[in-house]
Amino acid sequence: MGNCMVRYTIATLLLASLSASTVMAETAPETTMTIYADRPGAIINKNVYGQFSEHLGSGIYGGIYVGENSPIPNTGGFRNDVIAALKELKVPMIRWPGGCFADEYHWRDGIGPKDKRPVRINTNWGGVPENNSFGTHEFFDLVEMIGADAYVNANVGTGSPQEAAQWLEYMTGDQDTTLVKERRANGRDKPWKVSIYAMGNETWGCGGNMRPEYYVDIYNQYVAFIKAQPGAMPELLASGDHDNQTTFTTELMQNVRGRMDAISLHYYTILGPRWENKDTATGFSEAGWINTLANTLRMDDFIKTQDSVMTAFEEKRGRGAMRKKMGLYVDEWGTWYKPAPGSNPGFLVQQNSLRDALVAAANFNIFHKYADRVRMTAIAQTVNVLQAMILTDGPKMILTPTYHAFHMYKPFQDAASLPIDIKTGTYKYDQWSVPQVSASAAKAVDGSIVIGMANLDPHNAATVSALITGAQAAQVKGKVLTAEAMDAHNTFEKPDAIYPIDFNNAKLTGNKLYVTLPAKSVVVLKLQ
Question: What is the pTM of this model?
Fold first, then answer.
């Protein structure tokens, strides 16, 4: 059977599933929304859809970069298939080189002739040799190839203020200094643009096991020496808290003396409450479905808590609503499951299912809610690691349900967030309960209204009635991502087992929108 016929068959089955869901919806409680199209709020920064690529397993080597001599089709060592997929996704920003890896990474190891670069042991991830063939120049080749911005993580754990300052000069300098001449000799004439420069990573853990008071002193020391030519200074990011912790944020807001543009927050979705409590990526039960979704929704409370702490300090210093808020950058988030059977446990290999797509959509809707504060996030990670967009196996490549969720939500990049009131039912199972429908809305750059919704209930469709105030729309188009199985996923044998199709269960009547969301689905609508 040809690939076109396979896709046609799958789409037919999905449409049949949607029709069945419509019937089920007749007795389901209605979800009501009011979307205030005439009250645009903060811009949803495109970097909310950022990515994270660490030197971890095959996240870079084999996943993105295979070297120029590889039989896998490549351009300058970069996989053509992966580059094309990332360009299609409109990846706005990539974080590199880590992660825990960043605080043992010395940038000089990754410049100059590849055959002369030192080989180190990656002590954080799998204990395997790191040959440093992917370094600073290769990273900027990557971001330029896909049209993304660069987020670089400085080494605070085992580095020095001098090393961090010199790396920035090497990357962004445009005068005839020794470091700039060295960069030019290594093949790059023009300076690169660094959008975000982070001072360390998880300094409460793998980045140095520091107390918040100690890290603030270190941060102050580092940024005192971070200097750049006019127009070349990146945003400076401090290493903040994780989960519901606030000690680092509090200490940073109170005692940082130099420049600080944002503070990081990390949160991974596991079964909890202990870090060891992780589900399998596929073959999970309904308890695993709802437990994972309930835990990922905790992101809302964590951001709200951080926002409250930061706002209290800003108001104390007289930073009112007219001034730009300090950024809260969720630069590590996503699902973390048990490693795939037979894989190196240090490589964090896991399959990616429909459940992960709903996790992604639910988090997008949360990030949009806090668009004035959360102006960058980075899901972990881009290829082959944790909640990846892409999986590769030698010359083979597949797109994951999470990739499709990111692709569906592309219209939200740089859109103006719209207030949304929502009343929805509750999906319950065992001791857990979650709202049935998660949603957000925005006015896109092209003037259309986009609405993103996720029906978290794996059994029942959701009927949605939405009032659109302050705008008139003549047509509605959309995409839906769903499947029969909760753990539906793509494999190298069946790369199109799950993918978005056109959505036709939405209609406009005046300023009212009526939608039927299939069970366990992600739907993005565009109103024009």
Answer: 0.93
